[in-house]
Amino acid sequence: MELGKRAAVVTGSAAGIGRGLCVGLAERGYDIVGFDVDADGNAEMADLVRSVGRDVLALTCDVGDAAQVRSAADEAIKRFGRVDVLINNAAVWNDTRLTAGSYDTQVRAFSDALGACSSGAFHCATALVPAMREAGGGDIVNILTDHVLAGHFITGLPATGYDCAKFSLWRLTESWAVELAPFGIRVNGLAFGATDTPMLRGVSPAMADAGMRPSDIAQAVANVLEHGRGGPTGRTYAFGMSRASRAEHLAGIAAIAEISED
Ligand SMILES: NC(=O)c1ccc[n+]([C@@H]2O[C@H](COP(=O)([O-])OP(=O)(O)OC[C@H]3O[C@@H](n4cnc5c(N)ncnc54)[C@H](O)[C@@H]3O)[C@@H](O)[C@H]2O)c1
After folding, report:
1. Which residue, by CA, sits nearest to atom 18 of ligand 1?
2. Which residues does residue 34 pair with via DSSP β-bridges, in sequence order?
């Protein structure tokens, strides 16, 4: 292990925001470990990280599978000797309506939605917090959504499993922040709206065109990380609401940097 090097684990690293987070953190000096079910997309992410001069491990891993996360986390720690940052970004937007599909398809879809997002985050945190404790601290950033914020329109959306997963990840954010504060591990969440990724393009190309870019979310994560060890924990940073302008999105991201203490 090279002294002074920092390593970040990003879930859902192969595409969209996760890929943007990997590249954005690499540009800011982190070595990257990406967990994703999409091996080809993850290999492309790895090439991008190497092109900005950082080391990278692209691991094929379904974060909803506890055994796969255990072995991927072990491989990450073996390779880099440490993990400073965990970003729980993986999620699945799928149809979990009670009025669609069959019993088997909807039960499977609900399980996939919770597996990728809330169980996946729990698996990753459980596997990696011991390494953070050993290093004297770290950061967990949970990628939420503006759906968890008061006033968000819910009725009629098909992705109830996605929303359940995000609400539970929100609660884990708050609870873990309390549990892990004595160990110097901060836990914060980002709740934001439309961002141009394959997930959103599949739902609404118009919203994707008007939305933020994955690099904007990387800047938001960087602003949270730059608060450092004494910085706020247990926060949910809200920005990038879907009907706001791009200038308002960027101002909301910049405002994260201004908050320096609890
Ligand atoms: N795109 C938006 O408008 C938007 C808005 C708010 C929040 N978010 C959140 O940002 C995050 C990333 O979203 P995105 O739009 O980039 O999605 P995306 O679908 O474009 O990419 C998600 C990535 O996660 C991977 N993944 C899915 N299930 C997995 C699993 N079980 N294990 C490992 N990897 C898995 C996919 O293979 C894919 O590479 C999600 O948490 C999403 O809820 C997105």
Report:
1. 199
2. 10, 58
